[in-house]
Specification:
- The complex is a heterodimer.
- Chain A is α/β, with parallel strands linked by helices.
- Chain A folds into two domains: 97 residues, Roll (Urease, subunit C, domain 1); 389 residues, TIM Barrel, CATH 3.20.20.140.
- Helix content of chain A is 33%, strand content 21%.
- Chain A contains 19 helices and 26 strands.
- In chain A, the strands form six sheets. An eight-stranded parallel beta sheet of chain A has the order 8-9-10-11-12-13-16-20.
- In chain A, a hairpin with a 2-residue loop joins strand 4 and strand 5.
- In chain A, helix 9 packs parallel to helix 10 and helix 13 crosses helix 14.
- The radius of gyration of chain A is 22 Å and the shape is globular.
- Chain B has two domains: 186 residues, 3-Layer(aba) Sandwich (Rossmann fold), CATH 3.40.50; 165 residues, Dimethylsulfoxide Reductase, domain 2.
- The longest helix of chain B is centred in the middle third of the chain and has 15 residues.
- Chain B is globular, with a radius of gyration of 23 Å.
- Classes of the chains: A alpha/beta, B alpha/beta.
- The interface between A and B is large, with 64 and 63 residues.
Chain lengths: 552, 409
């Protein structure tokens, strides 16, 4: 591959402490090299007037797997209305909140994203997710395996098998499903719903296993800490969407006792019960707790107004929400002693008190959490909004006048209940580079992504420095994937594929005897059939395995 | 070549996904050991005779000539129906990519039942479940309509062993509007099995009554058996309504809709789920790969580089009437292409005996025997890894389709 030299651009590389430094960026052999010591670039890109950043990384976006396919099935009108136009790089797919694989890669790449992680890979469905990711161009990908509702684990914990056995099992699952991290969705709650329990608080016992979400959470936090995973437990907490869940969220933060925890789509977990409508913003309290606890990171799960579809492993919550489906249809599924899924189409309405306040709560979180290294820009695609709304969200964060203009459109009752109008903070470009690049790379443990230092992958983006930040981040001037120009003037100009990322900490293979028996007896097929082989990933290319403290 | 025996082979045919097949391979000859269900053993078995040559209009030709002829015919045709689609996920991907370039419709030959399911799931939704959930939780299993084990041979052995991890007491199995085969009865030995007969065409009414009863609305004119079943479902901890959509009659859409509403009503107070089975020859994988690549569940059409979906027009039965060329893929079994006036390019199982000789015939390998690949289980969630066990010189559908695509001028 030929070498590329990007000249005259303002380099924004917070991971290396570079804020608006005009310097060359050179990519050779797919990696960034020291520009000063390099000669022989065959291609030069003049980035004058532009801002150069690393490829953006989305740590939480539902882009692949069985539940994504159910969203496509249910939202057939959206698919019909949004067809990929004909073109040299068209995949003949479509969708917006339900975007097909090829379109997902294209739309992310045009915005300057080059790595996106699927945060809810149900183990039983891992093979599907990986097969689908093979068809997503441009993006490096990976999945977080959903644990914490799987009967094998709950049985291990409740039978007192001990932390070591849990660690071995978690490591086995990471290897078997080729996962990058561990996600917990409503710890124990999805499982409890299978036993007909409708709500499960942090300290409420699962009706069958008699263990609490707190126990499941702390046990799994310990497991990933002891296994040495870079990414902490990625938690979708208890009581999603329930007014008053701010208390659960605060109690969850306290439950970590200082160990690392990533709490996802926290907007959906920051609700109080004040006011006439018994629905209020808990953002200030949650942000205060996040600010005070450096072991906690969050992503927001911002909602935007319009039609979308909510897709979650949390069938307990989604069954509760089924009445608000719009259009009126929804699908639920219990899955393989593992987890579940619930898909509910939904329209967030600007004139709805609850929806408008949800929008405001998301922004309050963004503006009140002080450390940009511990907050991530997400809409929980497609649950809060499609990922294509990120540029609009960035402008809301960077441009107070713009934000106030949008805030002013909300119902008066909402404006009375939100402090968005009083918040003066405007994100800087550097902060945007942190929340979309440097911090995601750090929290996933990537040493060679999210920055522009020598040795980093050649995923580089050039944006024109447009004062309209929404326009700026909608279409990048240039996007390079491993040094190959894939986007020019906001349009796809060539095809490239990323890799799949996983971790594989070492474990005591004694756990395999137990799992073999579990699969034979409980699952009805063999553990060895369940395990995904290297040659099943991306046409035999395998996954990139990242180091952990306990690596094989 | 020495004989080799492989254990724990995954079976790709019906969609139950058994992984306890033992295959003995000697050269190209294959036999499946006892324990494999009769149908799978028959489908896995190969005589050892060399694979047939590719043919153009019945004349043996080289593989390359056949590929060139197929490419030429694709270029010369106006309307192409891609049909069969009995192949692994990579084969489906390759067909979709080719169809996007040439234009034409794409459907799976066994999709009729699946679209009956979609009439409910896509328009209204449902609560469904998977094999392992049923196996461990289900205390009351209601078979709606004809016995699915005719198509899914070992289904009861798989999902309803005598005991379930969370099941207290014996499981109950009720056949509503159908009856178990002798083989099903032997798989269900030790379980309480009841049959509630319905009059011809009366299954929809029975389910409507059941739905009203479980929802607590004014009891319609329901017989004592239906009333008792409604009470039993309400009292069950995890009731399951299962059906094979392909075996239902013409009123299948309505049967499914009513069964879904029974489950919907039950979930207000207890837990219940549907187990809709549809999945022969990787139908489920074809459905999934088409959804994630095109955005629609099969029966897609490509024109001028843009795709759309029409469950009637792009159904194979209708598409072949309009087509001047049918591209037929059937790698799992020697299934015949539909009769039509169109010329046929058949990428088919080597043992296929055609009624009408296709314009081009290229024998292809079977996923899970001749090459590795991915198929999906009939309950939609679980992917089945298929491995390679012999070399009979047969290429995969994906490889052949890709070569044809590249050979286009």
């Amino acid at each position: 591959m030929s070498a590329v030299r990007i000249i005259n651009g303002r380099v924004l590389d917070p991971a290396n402490g570079e804020s608006s430094v005009v310097r060359d960026v050179v990519i050779d052999g797919g990696r960034i090299v020291d520009a000063k010591g390099f000669s022989g670039a065959t291609e030069t890109i003049d980035a004058r007037g532009g801002v150069v950043m690393a490829g953006a990384i989305d740590i939480h976006s539902h882009i692949a797997g069985g539940k994504s396919n159910i969203t496509r099935l249910l939202m057939v009108e959206e698919q019909r209305a949004n067809r990929e136009p004909k073109g040299d790089f068209c995949g003949c797919g479509g969708g917006l909140s339900t975007m097909t694989a090829h379109a997902t890669g294209c739309r992310y790449a045009e915005m300057g994203y080059t790595a996106v992680f699927e945060p809810a890979m149900v183990a039983a469905n891992a093979r599907h997710m990986h097969a689908e990711m093979k068809d997503i161009p441009f993006l490096d990908t990976g999945g977080y395996v959903v644990l914490g509702n799987d009967d094998f684990l709950l049985d291990l914990i409740s039978s007192g098998a001990g932390q070591q056995a849990v660690n071995d099992y978690v490591a086995w699952q990471l290897a078997a499903t080729k996962a990058m991290a561990v996600k917990i969705v409503n710890p124990g709650g999805i499982n409890a719903f299978k036993f007909n329990q409708r709500k499960l608080d942090l300290d409420e016992a699962n009706p069958h296993y008699e263990i609490t979400p707190r126990t499941i959470l702390t046990t799994l936090i310990k497991a990933v800490t002891e296994l040495g995973l870079a990414h902490p437990i990625h938690l979708h907490g208890c009581n999603l969407g329930v007014p008053g869940n701010e208390d659960t969220t605060l109690a969850t933060i306290a439950a970590t006792e200082g160990l690392p925890l990533h709490m996802t789509h926290v907007q959906f977990h920051s609700y109080g019960t004040e006011g006439d409508k018994k629905f209020s913003s808990g953002a200030a309290k949650i942000a205060e707790a996040v600010n005070a606890n450096p072991n906690i990171s969050i992503d927001v799960g911002q909602v935007m107004f319009g039609q979308t579809v909510t897709a979650s492993a949390d069938l307990m919550s989604q069954h509760r929400n089924r009445g608000i489906a719009s259009p009126k249809r929804w699908i639920g599924m219990d899955m393989e002693m593992d987890a579940a899924c619930g898909i509910v189409p939904f329209v967030y309405k600007e004139k709805s008190f609850v929806n408008a306040l949800q929008w405001a709560i998301g922004l309050e979180l963004f503006l009140l959490v002080e450390d940009p290294w511990r907050i991530f820009l997400t809409t929980d695609h497609p649950n809060g909004a499609p990922f294509t709304t990120y540029p609009h969200l960035i402008r809301l964060l960077m441009d107070k006048d713009f934000r106030d203009e949008h805030f002013a459109r909300l119902p008066k009752a909402v404006r009375k209940h939100s402090i968005v109008g009083e918040l003066k903070r405007e994100y800087t470009l550097e902060e945007i580079a942190i929340v979309t690049r440097a911090a995601p790379a750090k929290i996933l443990g990537f040493k060679d992504r999210g920055h522009l230092g020598a040795g980093a992958v050649g995923d580089v983006v050039i944006y024109r420095d447009d004062p309209d930040r929404e326009a700026m981040f909608t279409k990048a001037d240039y996007v390079l994937k491993n040094g190959q120009v894939i986007v020019k003037d906001g349009e796809i100009v060539s095809i490239a594929y990323g890799q799949t990322h996983q971790v594989a900490p070492d474990y005591d293979t004694g756990i395999e005897t137990k799992l073999d028996r579990w699969f034979d007896e409980a699952m009805g097929f063999k553990a060895k059939t369940f395990k995904i082989a290297d040659d099943e990933i991306r046409d035999g290319q395998g996954a990139v395995t990242h180091a952990t403290t306990r690596s094989a | 070549m020495a004989e080799t025996t492989s254990h724990d082979v995954v079976c790709p045919f019906c969609g139950i996904g058994c992984d306890d097949v033992t295959l003995t391979v000697d050269g190209a000859a294959v036999t499946a050991a006892e324990g494999t269900c009769g149908r799978a053993a028959q489908l896995f078995a190969r005589s050892g005779a060399p694979a047939p040559s590719a043919r153009i209009a019945g004349r043996d030709v080289s593989f390359e000539e056949a590929v060139a002829e197929a490419a030429k015919r694709l270029g010369a045709s106006k309307t192409i129906a891609y049909a069969g689609l009995g192949t692994d996920v990579d084969g489906v991907r390759a067909v979709l990519k080719l169809a996007a370039k040439t234009g034409g419709s794409v459907d799976h030959y066994a999709s009729e039942g699946m679209f009956r399911n979609l009439a409910s799931s896509q328009r209204k939704g449902w609560v469904a479940t998977t094999f392992a959930e049923v196996r461990n939780r289900c205390d009351l299993f209601v078979v709606v309509g004809p016995d699915p084990s005719k198509a899914y041979h070992r289904v009861y052995e798989r999902v309803l062993p005598a005991t379930g991890r969370f099941v207290e007491g014996p499981r109950r199995v009720v056949f509503l509007g159908g009856a178990p085969t002798e083989d099903a009865k032997s798989q269900l030995e030790g379980l309480s099995v009841e049959i509630i007969a319905t009059p011809e065409g009366g299954l929809v009414d029975a389910l409507s009554q059941l739905s009203a009863l479980v929802a607590g609305s004014v009891p319609p004119a329901a017989g004592p058996e239906i009333k008792a079943l409604a009470e039993a479902l309400k009292a069950a901890r995890y009731g399951v309504l299962a059906w094979s959509a392909a075996s239902l009659d013409d009123d299948g859409d309505l049967v499914i809709e009513r069964a879904v509403s029974v489950v919907d009503a039950l979930n207000v107070t207890t837990r219940a789920a549907c187990l809709p089975l549809s999945g022969k020859d990787n139908l489920t994988g074809a459905y999934h790969a088409t959804l994630w690549n095109v955005g629609f569940p099969l029966r897609v059409g490509f024109r001028d580089g843009v795709s759309d979906h029409d469950q009637t027009a792009y159904a194979t039965a209708n598409a072949v009437k309009e087509a001047d060329l049918v591209v037929w893929t059937s790698a799992f079994r020697p299934e015949l292409p539909p009769a039509s006036a169109a010329a046929v390019i058949a990428l088919s199982h080597p043992d296929t005996v055609f009624d009408t000789e296709p314009a081009v015939f290229i024998p292809v390998g079977q996923p899970g025997l001749d090459h590795q690949g991915l198929a999906f289980r009939a309950d939609s969630v679980v992917g089945l890894p298929l491995r390679r066990y012999r070399d009979a010189g047969l290429k995969s559908v994906a490889d052949v389709v890709t070569l044809i695509s590249e050979a286009r001028a």
